[in-house]
Design goal:
The chain is built from 10 helices and 12 strands. It has one domain (4-15, 40-264): P-loop containing nucleotide triphosphate hydrolases (Rossmann fold). By secondary structure, the chain is α/β, with parallel strands linked by helices.
């Protein structure tokens, strides 16, 4: 592994709720009379700093609704950040000229969770896989069929089926089509958003093995988003733990699983079933994930944290290095 492929600097993403005229007037009237008005802004991602080095697999883990997919979409260039910078190999994508920005973002492709809704049901597989390289001038009409066939074979599909539609394939095959589509533009970086979550366990193993084979063959870099720590442990070099829009811990996979520091990471790991703990009673993390419309003050995890202190309710902890390559955001470290 060499330098950074992707750097996120102070990345934040907020979504505003659309209000019609009547609702807006009612909110203003309530505020004028001194009443409280609930926030209409969703803080999906808050001030995230993250570096993904070329050639590595970074696993991004957290509960549903913590902002993982939003972060992945900003990395892939599908949505712009509200604040902060996305750097591709040291260059701020937002400041590049259009041609350079398009070339940079072609190098980052995304594989989505649902292998059916992410494919256009009106297009045949050959069109799904071959459209982007054709549009971007990577292939001409003469080499179209051969190029599409090669992408399908690489993803473990039979080129003889390329004139079929997505609904004629199984879930695992549809995910392979999504992988072939992503690889067709010859990217260096893949964002995999829960890419195996919707598949049967046996098919999950096949797709994970395919990801590892492709990494070795093409020297790919991955941001692998998942809520399954078992999958992340198998696939990732490093792990970042996300909670309610913030990165709370980051370290090598071995370090995270051996010496987790943040109470949230420890709670997630305690729920992972293992052979040597099969007789142990598993308890879920207490409480529910707070709403990003109204996140808790201070440390977002303090309402659910068994080690919460008074300072946790008031001051957001800073991510600091607690060991070489191991960063955590917890007041217990101070």
């Amino acid at each position: 592994m060499t330098g950074a492929a992707i750097e996120l600097r102070g990345i934040s993403k907020r979504f505003g709720k659309h209000m019609d005229f009547a609702a807006l007037m009612a909110q203003r009237a309530k505020r004028a009379m001194g009443g409280d008005t609930p926030s209409t802004v969703v803080r999906a991602v808050e001030c995230v700093d993250l570096t993904i080095r070329s050639g590595e697999v970074l696993g991004l883990v957290g509960e549903s609704g913590c902002g993982k997919s939003t972060l992945g979409r900003m990395v892939a260039g599908i949505m712009p950040p509200t604040e902060g910078q996305v750097l591709w190999k040291g260059q701020d994508v937002a400041t590049l000229k259009p041609a350079a920005a398009k070339a940079a973002m072609l190098q980052v492709q995304m594989i989505f969770q649902d292998p059916y809704s992410s494919l256009n049901p009106r297009l045949r597989v050959e069109q799904i896989v071959g459209e982007a390289p054709s549009v971007h001038g990577m292939i001409g009409a003469a080499g179209f069929d051969a190029y599409v066939d090669a992408q399908l074979r690489r993803a473990g599909l039979d080129p003889a089926d390329k004139r079929r539609y997505p609904h004629q394939f199984s879930g695992g095959q549809r995910q392979r089509i999504g992988i072939a589509r992503a690889l067709a533009v010859q990217p260096e970086f893949l964002v995999c958003d829960e890419a195996v979550a919707a598949l049967d366990v046996s098919i999950q193993a096949q797709i994970l093995n395919l990801f590892m084979d492709l990494r070795a063959e093409l020297n790919l870099t991955y941001l692998f988003i998942s809520h399954d720590l078992g999958v992340v442990e198998h696939l990732s070099d490093r792990v970042a733990i996300m909670y309610l829009g913030r990165i709370v811990e980051e370290a090598t996979t071995e370090e995270i699983f051996a010496r987790a520091n943040h109470p949230y990471t420890q709670a997630l790991l305690s729920e992972v079933p293992r052979i040597d703990t099969r007789k142990r009673h598993f308890t879920a993390i207490t409480g529910e994930l707070p709403s990003p419309l109204n996140p808790p003050t201070g440390c977002h995890f303090h309402p659910r944290c068994p080690a919460a202190m008074a300072v946790c309710k008031e001051v957001a902890p800073v991510v600091r290095e607690i060991a070489p390559g191991h960063r955590s955001a917890c007041h217990l470290n101070g």
